[in-house]
Amino acid sequence: MSESNRLFKFSLPFHMNHHVLRSQTMYVSGVLYALGLWLMIDASIFSKTLNASVVHVTFIDWIPFICSTLGMIIINSLDKVQLISASSGSFDTGALSLQWQARIILFIGFSLIAVGFNGSFLILVLKFIIKGFTSNPTIRMGTENVGANICVMASCTILWIVSTLEEDNSLSL
Fold it and tell me: What start-end ranges are recorded for coiled-coil regions in this protein (predicted)?
């Protein structure tokens, strides 16, 4: 590679193939989701076995995680081409309608993820902090719920970015 075609002054010690980078980031996304699921399971197991307080993890605590998971499924199931596929100069109302349908579904998916994160934070505040359960083993159940939803949001973000990468390593959206 000639000196005039370089972006940096130094060369990178390794060359990442696009497919390797894409598969590695998908694995990272899966690990983040698994970590979030494990945080929820850990909070539930702790709540039912070792918890000495009167506060326990119930189905209400799982609702934000379920909303975040549904949002992640909706967002990453969309065909990204449908979001930008409508041609600007034609009068094809079918393609325009499909584009708006995809955008509405994408909005619903992002709304579910936002509801999941905000719901877990609300549960942390209302169930643990306001009622005075701020000692370490008990508050951990609420913080694990928030951490689980953060992991799902990060996993969804990574998966979205990786799925929008083109073959020439540029973002299409």
Answer: none
